Amino acid sequence: MAPRGHHLTEVALLASASADLAAAGAGEREGWLDDPAVLTSLGPRARALAVASAARSVLVVVPVGGGAGLTVKPALGPDEGRISAVEWVPLGGEDGAEGEEGVAVAVGTDAGWLLFYSIAGDLLHKQVYGNCFPGPYALTWITKDSIYPAKILKLNFRERKEHAWEDSGSDELSVVFPGVIGRLDGADLQRMLRKSFQDAKSRLWKDKFEEEDADDEGSFGKIPFQIWNISKFGSCADAAVVGLMPPPLLELQSSQRHYCAITVGEDAVVSAYRLSEDRSRSLVGAILSKGVAATFSTISSLSKILWRSEPSPPKKSRPKPQSFAKTSPLTCLKDSPRKGERLTLSPSGTLAAITDSLGRILLLDTRALVAVRLWKGYRDASCLFVEILLNKGKASSSMPMEHTKSDYCLCLAIHAPRKGIIEVWQMRTGSRLLTIPCPKGSRILQPSTRFSSSPFSSSYSPLEVYLFNGDSGQLSVLNRHIL
Q: What distance in Å separates the CA atoms of residue 6 and residue 442, rounded to the nearest whole number?
């Protein structure tokens, strides 16, 4: 039997922020946090908590260290949908930027809109994904127009700096739709948001916003991104870009990258795809596209000369549709009536914990694409990876000391709300280390980023798991070491 004990340390009591959280539904009934329409995201270093309500179309940001909270009601029109996802995005990276300049909150809607807010409540950016047809790649600002009204199921920002000596890719924000996944490079996104933040600080943002919104729909710039169709084996309920992978066999080496994506859904419990950045079309297609465009331009010019028609009033240019990049299906697991529900990645992306509708949890090796472990009897469970210090000698030492990554063991925290417990299992095939009772109406959370130090430094910031009790407002952290 796994040991039981007090393995949680209180970080803050957010009861003082009850007035702010009430805007998202807190206090209306016991267990309000169990409502799937209530979305939560813990900020970097667990310094702020974002709570959004889809039914109320409101975003609440509560500082964990105390102070006044912030309530934002996005001005969403009928064609812009309701809030469906929320995530924190760092603006400063590893330099450890502090305060409101260091982070932004990303909000996704069920109509495909992305909104970015500073923690002061300023709207930094607003954009929507366009429909996917052959065309150039760009994430374009669109005003009051959603050509591809798809629900954003999940926003996930991932750091990849712990493997800086390897070609492991860059930081990224992934956007998951039903059957579609998009990837925004972290550097491009942070550059745009930092610029927008400086505009907001200049106090000219409001006037500039109204002027640009009225005069030029594209004046806010473009953020490059990639988008792929991952519906070969059916629509997905959750998905993630797990990392880089080698190109297919017999394919010429190039500078283009290939990513591996894992999806879960109703038709296939788990599926895997190779995502290619190569967006070039065939030579014939390129010639035809350029030739047709040139021919049409020539005919249009000749017709104006021959008929000398009055010049038509200029029209606002509509955003060009966008194309899917190449996707290659790798494998899938179909096991009706089992349906995949949630997907959680380890820090390196080499392991994925997948929950399904029958109460099972599958541990998947994302490189070999094989299942390495299976748990049963965990309906409605949620999982997060955590790093635990198992060296009792170092943990009990009275002398302060820095721990390296090798001192920590990767574990999986499983929150089983029906059982009212949190279990911690050692990876990959280790035993159960902890069983912690937790009250109903709680959620396990994890900061989106750690702002970890340089990989060549001796210090290391481990991956931590927090427990938020919505009814009491208590935020606790799972202790790093096991006594």
A: 17
The Cα–Cα gap between 329 and 11 comes to: 44
In this structure, the strands spanning 83-90 and 103-109 are antiparallel
Q: How confident is the model at residue 282 (pLDDT cuts 50, 70, 90)?
A: very low
Quick: pLDDT tens for 135-151.
333 333 333 333 345 89
Work out the average pLDDT over 216-244: 80
The SS3 call for residue 162 is helix
pLDDT confidence of 232, banded at 50, 70, 90?
very high
Any idea what DSSP says for residue 246? Answer: P
Residue 286 confidence (pLDDT): 38
Residue, of 461 and 292, whose pLDDT is higher? 461
Q: Can you give the length of the chain in residues?
A: 483
Q: Measured between alpha carbons, how far is 453 from 159 in angstroms, rounded to an integer?
A: 12
Rounded mean pLDDT, 325-346: 94
- Could you list the beta-strand ranges (E) of 148-282: 154-158, 172-177, 180-185, 222-223, 225-229, 236-244, 258-265, 270-276
- Do 145 and 133 meet the contact criterion of CB atoms below 8 Å apart? no
Residues contacting 275, CB < 8 A, separation 6+: 181, 183, 226, 228, 241, 258, 259, 260, 261, 325, 326, 327
Alpha-carbon span 8 to 345, nearest angstrom: 23
Which residue did the predictor score with more confidence, 427 or 279? 427
R_g of the chain computed on alpha carbons = 24
Chain mean position to CA 104 = 13
Give residue for tokens 């481990």: 462
Sign of the CA dihedral running 455, 456, 461, 463: positive
pTM of the model: 0.82
